[in-house]
Specification:
- This protein starts with 29 loop residues before the first strand and ends with a strand.
- β2, α2 and β3 form a beta-alpha-beta unit.
- It is elongated.
- The strands form 3 sheets. Strands 6, 8, 9, 11, 14 and 16 form a 6-stranded antiparallel sheet that branches. A 5-stranded parallel sheet has the order 2-3-1-4-5, with helices on both faces. A 5-stranded antiparallel sheet has the order 7-10-15-12-13, with no helix packed on it.
- It is built from 12 helices and 16 strands.
- The N terminus is likely disordered.
- It is α+β, with helices and mostly antiparallel strands.
Length: 396
């Protein structure tokens, strides 16, 4: 793997060794209204990398009390994400842009049912395990209309007591979708990722990973198909049938708001990933926007973050310096690498001392369902010396 030339004098601490932040973009303040079992964990994981860690605000439930606690931070371009609590939108500043994702009602109901059945700590776990899907939804009808009631709850603390309440307030949920900066549907993951990347002006688009799908994966295709058939039979049910119609009307609204899959307006993109997005070993401290690392011989000292870029060819250029001796110690080296989550090494390069510290990893990313991460490992080098500022990722 070829190394480019750099000046004989190592650039001073704090510079990016010729890398610039020209790929960065001014992101808007976002509230991602995460409806359960709609791929929200996956989307949040893909988005977090684009925001500074201090500007990512989340919790198990985004309540009005939570928003009140973080209110001073909402003046910044933050990413706020989580399941919406009752009336939380009444406390969200108008300048924040709303993002949400819906899922085909039949798939959502089955996924939600399997999720409850897989969680012993869920209050309805026992009944989900005991009852079939049909009896379960008849006994607990709000579980048949989770997407609509989630949006209604976000709008107002006024409780939804009866199926008639859901039907009478449907227009409120539909109007909320109209207010959203972006609405996606889980059945169109490529369009969702590409269109949201374009709406946000991201320097490098992402691919939607598939996380939190363990309950579905733990069941056979036959079981899931049987549950889908059982759901279809509920359309004729006097109680659940009208609720299915409401969920489908909301989903149809979301589909109508989804633009056709956008074609990228950029033939290539560049993403600067600063040091504070990475993790580091115990002998490291984050100072002045970079990791200062004391090497202790072996093992990874820098790693992360998980990224889900589209399939393609990329170059990852490391911004770093080494202020220790410029020659090897007992054959020691630094190893720079990019790997997939499956620990598939996509590219690596060793630095064995000297003034040439340019590290560029040219690699193919052929499995967009697997995230990639960058790593730095010390092999036989010891002492204070490694200073790591980040990685610039360029699409080829």
């Amino acid at each position: 793997m070829a190394c480019g030339c750099v000046p004989a004098e190592i650039p001073p601490w704090g510079s990016r060794q010729g890398l610039t932040s020209s790929g960065e973009t001014a992101l808007p303040p976002i509230f991602f209204v995460h409806i359960s079992k709609t791929g929200g964990s996956s989307l949040a994981a893909a988005l977090r990398i684009y925001w500074d860690p201090g500007d990512v605000l989340t919790g198990p439930l985004i309540t009005t009390e939570f928003v009140q606690q973080v209110e001073p931070a909402l003046d910044r371009p933050v990413l706020l994400h989580g399941h919406p609590g009752p009336g939380v939108l009444s406390r969200i500043p108008e300048r924040m842009r709303l993002v949400t994702v819906l899922r085909r009602p039949a798939d959502h109901a089955v996924s939600n049912y399997l999720h409850i059945g897989s969680r012993p700590d869920h209050p309805l776990h026992g009944q989900a395990a005991e009852l079939g899907l049909g009896p379960f939804l008849r006994r607990h009808w709000p579980q048949a209309v989770v997407q609509t009631t989630s949006l209604l709850s976000a709008l107002s603390a006024k409780a939804v007591h009866t199926p008639a309440d859901v039907a009478s307030r449907f227009a409120e949920a539909a109007t909320l979708l109209d207010r959203c900066f972006f609405v996606g549907v889980l059945e169109q993951p490529k369009a969702l990722a590409r269109n949201l990347s374009d709406r946000l002006g991201l320097p490098l688009p992402f691919v939607l990973p598939r996380l939190n799908s363990a309950p579905e994966r733990a069941n056979t295709d036959r079981r899931i198909a049987d549950l889908g058939t059982e759901y279809e039979l509920l359309r004729a049910d006097d109680l659940v049938g009208p609720l299915i119609a409401v969920e489908e009307a909301l989903y149809s609204k979301a589909l109508a708001l989804c633009a056709p899959e956008a074609r990228s307006r950029r033939s290539a993109g560049t993403l600067w990933i600063p040091a504070n997005r990475f993790s580091a070993g115990e002998h490291a401290r984050l100072e002045g926007g970079a990791w200062r690392v004391r090497l202790d011989g072996r093992g990874h000292v820098i790693w992360g973050p998980y990224l889900w870029p589209p399939a393609g060819r990329y170059v990852g250029e490391f911004a770093w310096s080494f202020q220790g001796p410029k020659r090897r110690r007992g054959g020691g080296a630094l190893r720079f690498e990019v790997v997939s989550r499956a620990d598939r090494c996509l590219a690596f390069q060793h630095w064995r001392g000297g003034d040439d510290i340019k590290i560029e990893l040219d690699f193919d990313h052929a499995h967009p369902d697997e995230p990639i991460e960058f790593r730095v490992a010390g092999d036989g080098l010891a002492g204070d010396g490694l200073q790591f500022e980040g990685v610039q990722l360029r699409a080829q």
